[in-house]
Amino acid sequence: MRIYSLLTKLLTGVAFLGAISNASAQKNWNAPRIVTTYCSGCHGIDGNAQLPYMPKLSGIDPAYAERKLTAFEEISPPVDELFSGLLNLTDPKKEPANVTRQERINMEGVAHAAKPGEMKEALLWYAKQTREPGRSGNKRLLAQGKELFMDGVPAQKVLPCQTCHGRDAQGKGFAPRLAGQNSEYLEGQLAKFRQGDRRHAPEMTMVTRDLDSDQARAVAAYLQSHD
């Protein structure tokens, strides 16, 4: 009797896992090949990256994403990794389009390997995907982050983030959507802006230069929690 019960549970579990697998396959069966082959490893098939230091691409504005990808496409592939490393050691801040070495490792090969039109297919695919609901966190930290996003810090001459990114952080114009984005990724980007390592967006360097690390963590946490 006990063996029968265990067998029943096992078969039920297998069926449940099979249902999940089938549902996932049905959801993603029509994703472009470049998404399933390259992009999904870091960003997920639906654009909801599970790696906290990677950006979510779901619901992204295609025009903004295309401008970002152009930076990777403009860089000539390095002769080899050693040569690339030597270039970084001699002058790490003078890379084309201000792309960091880690981002180049992740993206440069894909940008050059993709056939014409494939990247556009990927961008349009991700633009149509639904971003997962925001994740909650420490209430005090979220409240601080919301205040920073909405009102800035006048005493530090830090402008409100909503001015460019919209009250609901959905993005507008050249400013990307930030709502629901991974907080660790956002913190990393804010650190680069504050250090002056994002010369393609001088307005962000100016806005964030007086933001301290605790404030950056708070606004990143708020944005991750915001739908």
Q: Characteristics of this structure?
A:
Cytochrome Bc1 Complex, Chain D, domain 2, 0% strand, mainly alpha, globular, 227 residues, single chain, 3 domains
Describe this structure in words.
- It is a single chain.
- This protein is mainly alpha-helical.
- The chain has three domains: 29 residues; 98 residues, Cytochrome Bc1 Complex, Chain D, domain 2, CATH 1.10.760; 87 residues, Cytochrome c-like domain (Cytochrome Bc1 Complex, Chain D, domain 2, Orthogonal Bundle), CATH 1.10.760.10.
- The protein contains eleven helices and no strands.
- Helix 2 crosses helix 6, helix 9 packs across helix 10 and helix 9 runs antiparallel to helix 11.
CATH class descriptor name of the largest domain: Mainly Alpha
Please outline the major beta sheet.
Answer: none
End-to-end span in angstroms?
50 Å
Number of domains: 3
- Stretches where pLDDT is under 50 for at least 5 consecutive residues are 3-26, 78-99
Average predicted local confidence, pLDDT: 77
Helix segment tally = 11
Q: Judging by the overall fold, what is the CATH architecture of the largest domain?
A: Orthogonal Bundle
Radius of gyration: 21 Å
The beta-strand count equals 0
Query: Tell me, what's the shape?
Result: globular
Report the β-strand fraction as a percent range: under 5%
Write down the secondary-structure element order.
HHHHHHHHHHH
CATH topology of the largest domain: the name is: Cytochrome Bc1 Complex, Chain D, domain 2
Q: What is the percent of helical residues?
A: 55-70%
SS-derived structural category: mainly alpha
